[in-house]
Amino acid sequence: MKNFELNLSHEELVKRTSKECLIPKEMLKEDAPEYNALEQGDKEALKHLVKAAKAIDEVFMKQDNPDNLDFKAYLEAEVQKGNEDAQMTLTLFNAQIGMNAVDSEANKIFLAKNTKELPGKGFYPVDLSKEEFHNILIKMVKDGQIEEVRSILNQRSIVVRDGDRLKAVDYTEYFAKEFSYIADELEAAAEVSTNEDFNKYLRLQAIALCENNPNNDAYADKKWAELQDTPLEFTISREQYADEMTGTVVENEELNKLLEENNIEPIPKDSIGIRVGIVNKEGTAKLLEIKKYMPVLAQHMPYKEEYEQNITEGDDGKQTMVDVDIVTLRGDEGTYRGGITLAQNLPNNDKPSLKIGGGRRNVYHRQIRISTSPEAKEKRQKRLNATLAPELHKYYNQEADHWFTIGHENVHSLGPKSGTEALGKYKNIIEENKADMGSLALLDVLVELGMYSEEEKKQIMVTYAADNFLKAKPTISQAHRVRTVMQTKFFLENKAVWLNEQGLLEIDMDKMVPTAQKMLAQIVRVQLSKDFATGEKYVLDNFVWTDEMELIAGRLKEIDKALNGILKTPLADKLAEEN
Q: What's the whole-number mean pLDDT along residues 229-248?
């Protein structure tokens, strides 16, 4: 067994595992009424889906850091010896599903000594530098190894050394053992689940896990995106926020030109996760109210005549939406690293299903967004008192954050459908920025259509602005948080928001939507540029930590000591133990 040395001191471990700093988020309980209401076949299917989800953790840990599994084994052995520090370190490891992470104050956390951040995570050899990576690819392209380079730069391969070259190993081969187990569980679930559409998807997904054929992913994703009226939710998510190596190829002028000449599009690697849940019919019905407006919203996007969108006029069948009570989130879905997502819009634009006419699907996480405990309410009020002008408190509404998130996820389906890979490491930041600004920019349209009232519009704007301040400046690799800083800076600059003499946030209601429209137009223009330098300049010009942000951050740190969180999944844990 490989030996490690713990990096965090005993005092730091005590602090980070305390109830004040490590916040539990509980998913469905063992006696959840949502589970009890399921038909017996779906209860049986849920057991298999939970077991499939549990198996994805090992895949994700290998993708995240080559030492993750060895370090976990080391910690477990130390815990058996009674090592208290190892027990606390294991708690943090399980919460963030890995040995390295970033907390809510943008501190980089290394659980073992002498470890470092890997831009290529576990997708690339750990000793591969950016410069060597580029030089190898240039030589391979010049030597005619075009298809191998294409495989190296696709979203579904682990890259290994092959002499003085590199070689791509498809996920279905590299993770054959884990994928085969998951596929068997999906087939078993499909035998007992009560919904035939859902069963068809599970079987397609099982095939995709076992064969090196991107078309199989396309068929599975296309079917998944069509699911609307199913009792259960099962997603294999594939997102690209972790890989910081692949996108660097556009920064090398010689290499980028060679790739363009050979029609090779560099696509960052997919980190894989699984979501299992029970579809909430009442919440889903509310979500579907906006679906009919999607083609109208598409017509209000900037420069719409210059690109193809996923949603077009008269086409509302390519966007399904479900609100889900979460049973478990595993792998990339469950990595609680300073926060966890409220919702997702998938598949992303790089996925082959969109090329065969597939649509997209929004899934909302009820247990992540709902905080009704007295402690949560008290903390929320303290935050408002310290950051928001008193006359605006009446507009702050936790549900409005959900409404804003609905807009955010839907706007991922609007705007340029392709070509953003050229923005390299800034692609995700700019896309998340687009989704936020679209959510605000289209508010007047949704009020006119009857989706929201003028009062609800104010609630969305105030809640967004108040929640947009962070506890610390993020690192450039934190796409979701970087875009938050960019937006706050932009709104301050345009006088849509400001701090009064008491250092409390004031909001000009009349300027919020126009300011969002202005920024949205800039974002879409950057995406249409398909130019790395243009994207870099846009991000760096706006990613500025201002005095106002620092003032609010200091107050937030005083009120909220949370550094990370941990998912509690009692129903899933029980089901995983059953035969």
A: 95
Using CA atoms, how far residue 66 sits from 76, 97, 100, 242, 452, in Å, is 17, 13, 11, 14, 48
Q: Report residue 318's pLDDT band, with 50, 70 and 90 as the boundaries.
A: confident
Residue for token pair 């682990």: 158
The answer to whether residues 77 and 90 touch, using CB atoms and an 8 Å cutoff, is no
| Strand (E) or helix (H) holding 286 | helix 281-287
Q: For 374-422, what is the HEC assignment? A: HHHHHHHHHHHHHHECHHHHHHCCHHHHHHHHHHHHHHCCCCCCCCHHH
Question: At 379, is the pLDDT very low, low, confident or very high (cuts 50, 70, 90)?
Answer: confident
pTM: 0.91
The H or E element spanning position 255 is helix 253-261
Sign of CA dihedral 473, 479, 481, 487: positive
Map tokens 């005993």 to a residue. 10
End-to-end CA distance of the chain: 31
Of 439, 536, 546, 437, nearest to 489 (Cα)? 546
Residue 128 tokens, joined: 């591969």
Identify whether the C-beta of residue 65 lies closer than 8 Å to the C-beta of residue 122.
yes
Rounded CA-CA distance 423/419 in Å is 8
Per-residue model confidence as pLDDT tens digits over 421-439: 899 999 999 999 999 999 9
Structure-token pair, residue 216: 């199989």
Cβ atoms 250, 256 nearer than 8 A: yes
Which residues does 76 contact at the CB level (< 8 Å), separation at least 6? 90
Q: What is the mean pLDDT of the chain?
A: 94
